[in-house]
Write a structure and sequence with these properties.
elongated; 325 residues; single chain; 22 strands; five-stranded mixed β-sheet; 21% helix; three-stranded antiparallel β-sheet
Length: 325
Amino acid sequence: MSTKQLHMIYALNNNELVHISEVPSGLRCECICPACNAKLVAKKGEKVIRHFAHYNSEECKYGYETSLHLAAKQMIAEARKFTIPAVYLNFPSSGKNPLRISEAKEIEISEASLEQREGSIIPDIVILSKNRKIFIEIYVTHAIDESKLLKVKNSDISTIEIDLSEYKRSITKEELEKVIFEDTEKKKWIYNSYENSLLKKFMDVSIPIPINNQGFVDYCPMNKRTRKGKYDVLHGCYYCDFCISIGEKECFCSEESFIATIDDFHKTIEERKPSHYSRLENIRQAYVSCRICPNCKSYLVERTGRYGRFLGCSQFPHCRFTERI
C-alpha cells in the first residue's frame, strides 16, 4: 500500500501529540511529523478524511504508523479505566480445549507510564491496577518478537498486545478510542501470569510419559488407543481429557491424579473419580451418537462380527474403539 493512501490524523505540536481536529488548517497548525520531524500541513477539506500531509515533500514512510502508535499510547496513559480481554488457560500442543479462567472486564488504572524500563524490557506502556503491573504493547507494524516475548515470560508480568495493524487508513479518533477502550477483539494476552501459574499446577500433578521416534508411548493410564501394543500420541493422547501438554519427547498426563478441570483441585480424589467417569461416559455417548470415534475423532463405521453388528473406528487397527449396536 502506498504511503499516499494513508491518512495521518495525529501530529506533534510543540512536542505534544495533537489530533487534526485540535489545530487550525494549513500551515497554521504548526505541526511536524512524529517520524521524520518534517513540517506538516493540516488538510481539513470535505472530500477526504481530515488529515496531516507533508509540506513540500514526499510523505514519509513511517509517519502514519508512528502517529497511530503514539496516539494509542497517549490515550491509555491519560485514561483511568481500561478493558482487559478474557483469560484462557491453554494446554501446549494438546487438543484439550482451553479453559476460560477470567472474563473480559474493565479495570481501574492508578498509574501509567510510557516506555519505562522494567528490568531488561521497555514496554510501550506500563499500567498499575490494584498494585498489579500490566504491560501493554501497541502493534501497528511490528508484533512482539520472540526475544521480547522470552523477556516478558521471564519477568512474569502479564502483557497485552493491541493489534492496530489492520487499520491502514481512514481511522478516526472515535474508532481508535473504541478499539482501545471498548472492544476486546483486537486485544490478546501475549503472556498472563495467572494462566501460567494454573498451568504449572496442572503440570505438577501430571506424569511425563516418554514418546518414541514413531510418535508412540509405551504406557497409557487409560489403557486405550492401542496399535501393536503401543499408544498413539497424535490420535490418542492429543484428544484425551487428561493430556496437559505434549512436548517433543514426552507427554504430560494427569489421569493418575484424575485432574482435568480447575474445579478438580478443590475435590478429593474420591470425589473426582466418579464425577469424571460419569462425564467421560456422557462425552463418549455424545460422540458415538454422531458416529464419531470418542478416542481419535475419526468416523465410526458399521461392521458385523461374530457377536453381531457393531460400530468400529474407521482407523482400525490404528484405533480399536468399538461399540455394540
